[in-house]
């Protein structure tokens, strides 16, 4: 599903933030990528969504080599990968329902499909009763659930979660992780980037540990090592 | 069609939900447009004022009182044949005295003095209108050199000084006016450009999110282009609705000031409506779209 072959990346051509990374993630896996700040986790995420390009090596999603992705192909890649962020990235002037529908509208989705898909994903994340509210009218956990709903509308094969619990309290963080596990159960590959030790240890799933731009550990049922 | 509908919907949604930003942006456009139109009005008034002063300048030849009509007509035709002359107006002795009486009809002393005189003391005259005001002095020189026994007087010395002064003032007004207009237009365009960039800056997060959820470039750029069209159209319509009542209020004062002359700024704006406001709309739309394109491109690089 996702393959990284000897990938290196630097921003200033001297200091490499990713050093010869190789990684293979199978369809339907739930992988946690852990590491301290500056370990290269976020750069890895940015490579996967086409925000950055690798200097060396190859990044494959399925049969698609995204290392050579053309600028106009980026929107198509992003419709294949759902992404959620620590700061939710919801549009403040749109309701939760509009935020979710927006992802389909801007990619040319048909109105009938939008009317069908949006309520169902809002139901999956438990927000069907708050769909008319604006982001500032709901809690952080609910905002993140709306972001997950938005990431799911394209029915992506991969869901990338970059520190999704970073701005949440323990209860809301647990709810989000449970939601990600449910989504994974439906067959979606979930990549969770985090430095939350408790969550990683509780999951008991595959853990890839990064340090100084390199993968130092990759365990099928791993724990947070650092 | 669906895409166009969504673009228009997103644009109007954004305009309404960011109403304060919309108001501020349109206000800046309005101030720029109003300033440019005010400057245009001032320019028109100054042009009219100079025109009125020019009309006041007479280049006249006074002829001997007993000259026969055929000789006067021959002289008139001779002067009118010059390529520098637009027209020559002949005022007979009778016309001159009629005009004099009409001018002083409320002044019994003058009329009594005229009656006392017992005859028409005024001379027939030829008033020469140059084709080009700037060539007035050349026309005067030609008239000075004109050798004809029926000419009684041709003293243009005062006129020459005034003509030179007016030419000088006109030239200065044109130079300074053009400079001020250029500076003003440039400043206004920069202010508008910046206002649009600030408006788009407040949308940087939205643009970033659009990119992240897989929006195509068309969907990222077009709502802002459409908003630019709406801003431009609304601001030009408002400036029209403000400016016409303003001109209507100004017109009576101008008529009083330029009494006896046909100075109508309002009708100038009505007659040239499409050129004046069409050009302003296109200019403001162009600058809006350029600013939007550059600003969106900056934040869409995610």
Low-confidence stretches of chain A: none
| Strands ordered across the widest β-sheet of chain B | 2-3-1-4
Please tell me the total number of domains of chain B. 2
Count of individual helical segments of chain B: 11
State the name of the first-level CATH class of chain A: Alpha Beta
Query: What kind of assembly state do the chains in view correspond to?
Result: heterodimer
SS field, number of helical segments of chain A: 7
- Tell me which protein chains meet in the greatest interface and how many residues each side has: A-B, 26 and 23 residues
Q: In percent, how much strand structure appears in the residues of chain A?
A: 25-35%
Beta fraction of chain B: 5-15%
Fraction of helical residues of chain A: 25-40%
Q: Could you provide a short overview of the structure?
A:
The complex is a heterodimer of chains A (226) and B (302). Chain A has 226 residues and is of the alpha/beta class.
